[in-house]
Amino acid sequence: MVFIKEYSFVGGKDSMQKITNEVNKAIFDSGIENGIVVIEAPHSTTGILKVASCGEEVLADIVKEMRRIVPARINYLHQESPENAAGHIKSSLFGSSVSLILREGKLYCEEEQDIYFADYDGPRKRVFSVCVVGD
Amino acid sequence: MVFIKEYSFVGGKDSMQKITNEVNKAIFDSGIENGIVVIEAPHSTTGILKVASCGEEVLADIVKEMRRIVPARINYLHQESPENAAGHIKSSLFGSSVSLILREGKLYCEEEQDIYFADYDGPRKRVFSVCVVGD
Amino acid sequence: MVFIKEYSFVGGKDSMQKITNEVNKAIFDSGIENGIVVIEAPHSTTGILKVASCGEEVLADIVKEMRRIVPARINYLHQESPENAAGHIKSSLFGSSVSLILREGKLYCEEEQDIYFADYDGPRKRVFSVCVVGD
Q1: Which tens digits make up the pLDDT trace of A44-89?
Q2: Do C42 and A133 touch (CB under 8 A)?
Q3: 3-state percent breakdown (helix, strand, coil) of chain B, nearest 5
Q4: Are A77 and B61 in contact, with CB atoms under 8 Å apart?
Q5: CB within 8 A of C97, min separation 6: which ones?
Q6: What SS3 state is found at C111?
Q7: Which residues of A touch B35 (CB under 8 A)?
Q8: Chains that contact A by 3+ CB pairs under 8 Å?
Q9: What is the pLDDT of residues C107-135, one digit of tens each?
Q10: β-pair type (C125-134, C35-40)
């Protein structure tokens, strides 16, 4: 069985937005109990991340480290903006889709982790989809 | 339903080859309309990346940034060659498989993105496979 | 068809543990021949990596490069420990789940690669699951 649901929203500038509730709603609506959940952002300066649900500090560290490892700067060939050029690299490095295990109606990682939509550029209209495949 | 198709080719040295057409052909041949597409390179110095289809500059930036973040150099323990040793790290960092959503017969990301096979070493014979699972 | 199997163990400190045998056992037990295998660690300072099976040097290089790119240090906001804070970043960078292709009863990558469970913190009790979806 396959179930796909798309969500849209306007993200912030270089922001991380928690989307665990949206993912869980898609899982619930699918009626699927066991299988695989793929969450994908179809943009090139965004990402989908699975991160500890232990607090704001970890999230802030990740954003800061992303900026340290891939700084927004003027010497990219792509000249839309330093943030946009860096965002393309961050998207490749941190990934723009994740595959998760669905077990007995719940995300396998739900006790320790949340799912985040990272917008490395923005703010602009963004979308992501949740695809559930299983029984 | 499951459909798997393998492609082989000889890549360039530290190159990025667009494989969107091959992925789309596998999807078409599968007859599957909705589900998940996994694209995987079974090598250790290659990668599969989902990248903006907005032009050559972004692609060149990614290759350059990969080299900046993981330089080919002589102080790796693995001594096959600096490029090969760095390629193993790049493959782990940027990933050698991706999971994408297939919706109504098309890649969910097709409007903004292309799929690339990155060869961090080469040139040598390389393969990758496209697996489509769904209805 | 869907098959899920969980494994638990106590990992080492900042260690890489080969789990290819566990993955292959789950595949065998599933009876599934073709499809997708998702391997996921539900923790935030661990990762799942697909790495060359060509020897210990590559593995040691990867661990060393992870520490170079994301050093354990005291200026993270998350203050549990430098290793733990760095581990959260490594987990996001290198990923904590992978999607692999299963073809004719075998991992598509089995000739050249092994699957590893990376523990960036530890030692503590850890788990991971293997989910096989296909025919």
Answers
A1: 999 999 999 988 999 999 999 999 999 999 999 999 999 999 999 9
A2: no
A3: 30, 40, 35
A4: yes
A5: A50, A98, A99, A100, A101, C38, C39, C40, C41, C48
A6: coil
A7: 2, 131, 133
A8: B, C
A9: 999 999 999 999 999 899 999 999 999 99
A10: antiparallel
